[in-house]
Write a structure and sequence with these properties.
Length: 270
């Protein structure tokens, strides 16, 4: 391994926009894209700035929200630059960040921002993992409809307990959020499944659904047929999502969103 900046000990700082302008030694080391042995790479990743700071007692909520959004954008930028600089280490980064707040950020960047740089087998795994969370949105819609029908959160939790426990851990939060004590109106979640599909199609799945427009001249590591197959899998899930749509309570005149059906992800034979 070539000489590299030392990585100081101690807890990494929480991410802020300033750390993009004055990066820490791990950021500098990884952004350079220089070859690193496994131990040095792992130490650098673990030393990167952590998730933006949580709201502190007595802190003004409005100011915190503004700072937090800017810090999250900076954190995504940092991870995007690192993933671009180390295309052969994508799976390693996912393993090193497993169980941390950084893991979903890395996953969504690979799937939505850099899919052309991702190895085909890993891209398929990430897509399958994301689609698996659709069942959480589907259950969330059902939970909200039961609540809107007058059921208590306790009764609904008992009714859906088996389905909830069968979901992957990171898919449960979509339904559990409506069964907690936050007081959010369940009317807002009756179309959680359709909303999930719309957000995915316009966000982290956009490049896979329209690779020519989003990737430009960049070559894909995955074959065109594999990209098309992933888009078709998403289209099937999106169709299921739209089939669950119903006018929200009190808004009977709201039209059904059919734009996903009107825009197939890929034309036949591409």
């Amino acid at each position: 391994m070539t000489d590299t900046p030392s990585i100081p000990g101690g807890e990494p700082p929480c991410m802020t926009p300033e750390l993009l302008r004055t990066p820490t030694p791990p950021q500098i080391l990884l952004a350079a894209g220089a070859p690193l042995d496994d131990e040095a790479f792992a130490a650098a990743v673990r030393g990167l700035p952590a998730a933006p700071a949580a709201l502190r007692d007595g802190e003004d909520l409005g100011r915190w929200v503004t700072r937090h959004r800017a810090a999250l954008d900076a954190w995504r930028t940092m991870w995007r630059d690192i993933l671009r600089s180390h295309p052969q280490r994508h799976r390693t980064v996912l393993v090193l960040t497993d169980g941390t707040p950084a893991r979903p950020v890395v996953r969504d960047l690979l799937l939505g921002d850099l899919p052309w740089d991702v190895a085909p087998e890993l891209l398929a795994e990430l897509a399958a993992e994301d689609l698996a969370r659709f069942d959480g949105a589907l259950l969330a819609a059902r939970v909200c409809r039961l609540l809107c029908a007058g059921r208590t959160p306790q009764d609904v939790r008992a009714e859906v307990a088996g389905e909830l426990n069968a979901l992957p851990p990171d898919a449960r939060s979509a339904a559990e959020a409506w069964l907690g004590t936050l007081g959010a109106a369940p009317e807002r979640g009756v179309n959680a499944a359709a909303d999930w599909a719309v957000r995915a199609a316009t966000g982290r799945w956009r490049a896979l659904l329209d690779p020519a427009a989003t990737a430009g001249d960049r070559p894909w590591r995955a074959a065109p047929a594999d990209v098309r197959a992933l888009a078709e899998r998403f289209a099937a899930v999106a169709a299921r999502a739209l089939d669950t749509w119903q006018p929200p309570p009190g808004r009977g005149g709201k039209p059904r969103p059919d734009w996903l059906r009107a825009h197939p992800p890929l034309p036949p034979g591409t």
